[in-house]
Design goal:
The chain is globular and about 50 Å long. The protein is α/β, with parallel strands linked by helices and 249 residues long. The termini are far apart. A seven-stranded parallel sheet has the order 3-2-1-4-5-6-7, sandwiched between helices. It contains eight helices and seven strands; from the N terminus they run βαβααβαβαβαβααβ.
Length: 249
């Protein structure tokens, strides 16, 4: 039976409450077959801990075909291996949505070299390699390909995360021009503060006070924009850093 659903690859989908999970579910519901990546080792280091069985449960809920791939993005060989598995199981990728991240709070004086390098390996280098792999393998019609990355403007007390996300922004926006011959659009989304389990009560209160709508963002808010950008109607938006944060300032 011929499958007519395009394939999306969404990275960083390790927990059911995460932004990546919201994006993956929305794309699956709107006509995409979706592959996700996750890395249990990251969640084990975080205060929220691992969401055991979450990737498999997320994929099982999809309306179309799905695939969960565990991948350590500090490994430069991981992006090619991910695309190999997705192509073998689902077919060529049309949309690459990057919601993976290394994020450990530290500033100028307490950031270690190992942590700094890991942030850039995951947030910048792996993103470049994923985008490059997408461009090398893209087989879709001109104008149908998509690259979308999630970023952050947080820097104070979060030096390696903010700095590596700044590099991600430049890489992704450059792809809008370097992949132009393939008809792949490439955009960055800043979703603002979304509580997926990392906020303290004080951070939550501060974010609410700084947002005109007096609410926090949700994974669904980000998924709304990703769904639009991946649609035919979103084709004309290209090379942009889009603030989808409810006016947070």
């Amino acid at each position: 039976m011929t499958n007519n659903r395009p394939v999306a690859l969404v990275t960083g989908v390790g927990r059911t409450v995460g932004i990546g999970a919201g994006i993956a579910a929305r794309l699956a519901a709107s006509g995409w077959d979706v592959a996700i990546t996750y890395w249990g080792g990251y969640d084990e280091r975080m205060t929220w801990g691992p969401d055991t069985g979450a990737p498999e449960a997320i994929v099982k809920s999809f309306a179309g075909r799905g695939l969960a791939v565990e991948a350590d993005l500090t490994d430069p060989a991981a992006p090619a291996a991910i695309f190999d598995q997705v192509e073998e199981r689902l077919g060529p990728v049309t949309a690459l949505v990057m919601s993976h991240a290394e994020s450990v709070d530290s500033g100028l004086f307490d950031t270690g070299v190992e942590s700094f390098d890991r942030h850039f390996a995951v947030n910048a280098r792996a993103s470049w390699l994923l985008i490059r792999e997408h461009g090398l393998r893209f087989k879709g019609a001109h104008g149908t390909g998509r690259v979308i990355a999630l970023t952050s403007d947080h820097t104070v007390g979060n030096l390696p995360y903010g700095a590596s996300k700044g590099a991600l922004d430049r890489i992704t926006r450059a792809a809008a021009h370097e992949l132009a011959h393939l008809g792949i659009t490439s955009n960055v989304i800043n979703p603002g503060p979304i509580d997926t389990g990392w906020m303290t009560d004080q951070v939550r209160d501060d974010c609410l006070a700084a947002t005109p709508l007096q609410r926090l963002g949700t994974p669904q808010d980000t998924a709304n924009l990703v769904e639009f950008l991946c649609s035919e109607k979103g084709q004309w938006i290209n090379g942009q850093l889009l603030m989808s944060n409810g006016g947070f300032a």
